[in-house]
Design goal:
The chain folds into three domains: 6-121, Sufe protein. Chain: A (Alpha-Beta Complex), CATH 3.90.1010; 128-196, Arc Repressor Mutant, subunit A (Orthogonal Bundle); 207-281, Fe-S cluster assembly (FSCA) (GMP Synthetase, Chain A, domain 3). The protein has ten helices and eight strands. It has helices at 6-13, 62-75, 80-83, 88-94, 103-121, 143-153, 158-165, 175-196, 207-227, 257-272; strands at 26-32, 37-45, 51-59, 134-136, 141-142, 231-239, 242-249, 278-281. The strands form three sheets. The protein has a three-stranded antiparallel sheet. Strands 6-7-8 form a three-stranded mixed sheet. It has a two-stranded antiparallel sheet with strand order 4-5.
């Protein structure tokens, strides 16, 4: 059971500013019923571009209602420029915190506010994060969206990504792709940091180089480690950053093979070949 603060419960059971504004000056709509969360934010703005009224309608969980309610209270009395500075973390802080699993609700609030301000200005909001390849088909989340949330909130695990944008919270078949995006983001950040310190940028491996180095690492480093305990491993295929292997010997029947896969096989390949590699065990 999630631990909700008293302010979250108050804004859920007694939401502020629910309903419609007649002839609103700005409207922001985000989410979709198909994905389980949707929010419509309406603003009334005076001549000095100050928000004098804010109302909302939402479809979602208690945290979604509480976040939307809190947002309307936060923006009232602020200028559009001041409101534009509100972040999803600010919304969560206003509520004295949200469960990590519900942070996507405050993200939805921030996105609705951004959309409403853009609507007032009569501009099309440029959101490259919503473009790209759909990674999570259950919730329609793109690779660019996931990468944005990883950078924005310093995310390092699949669970954290799910908390902030719901990606990976359905059938979980996209988990390997999400992990690959996380690894790629932080690999690029690491390279930027090295360049900033005057180091030469890391040269990207070609596919052939990656395959050859993976084969060599498996044969010369990983297999001897496993063979020392009666186990073995076979490299089955390399597809981009995906390395597919099959355990042999005692490793094939070992209950700890999943740990070995990550702590030994994947760790060594990331150390000696490329940080972006994801190792998967297959039956072959």
């Amino acid at each position: 059971m999630w631990d909700y603060t008293e302010k979250v419960k108050d804004h859920f059971f007694h939401p502020r500013n629910v309903g419609d504004i007649e002839n609103p000056d700005a409207v922001g709509e985000v989410g979709s019923l198909a994905c389980g969360d949707a929010l419509k934010l309406m603003l009334k703005v005076d001549k000095s571009k100050r928000i004098v009224d804010a109302k909302f309608k939402t479809f979602g969980c208690g945290s979604a209602i509480a976040s939307a309610s809190a947002l309307t209270e936060m923006v009232r009395g602020k200028t559009l420029d001041e409101a534009a500075m509100i972040t999803d973390n600010d919304i969560a802080d206003y509520l004295d915190g949200l469960p990590e699993q519900k942070m996507h609700c405050s993200v939805m609030g921030r996105e609705a506010l951004e959309a409403a301000i853009a609507n007032y200005k009569g501009v099309k909001i440029e959101k490259p994060v919503d473009e790209g390849i759909i990674v999570c088909k259950c919730f329609g989340v793109t690779d660019n969206k996931i990468a944005h949330e990883v950078r924005e909130h310093k995310l390092t695990t699949i669970e954290q990504v799910t908390n902030f944008c719901k990606a990976g919270g359905g059938c979980r078949s996209c988990h390997p792709q999400i992990q690959a995006i996380i690894d790629e983001v932080w690999q690029k950040e690491k390279e930027k940091a090295l360049v900033g310190k005057g180091a030469m940028p890391v040269k990207k491996l070609t596919n052939i180089q990656k395959i050859m180095m993976t084969q060599e690492t498996v044969e010369r480093v990983i297999r001897p480690i496993l063979q020392a305990d009666g186990g073995d491993i076979e490299l089955i295929d390399v597809d981009g950053d995906r390395v597919m292997v099959s355990f042999r010997g005692s490793c094939a029947a070992c209950s700890g093979s999943k740990v070995t896969l990550k702590s030994t096989v994947e760790a060594k390949l990331r150390e000696l070949v490329a940080d972006s590699l994801i190792v998967e065990e297959i039956t072959a």
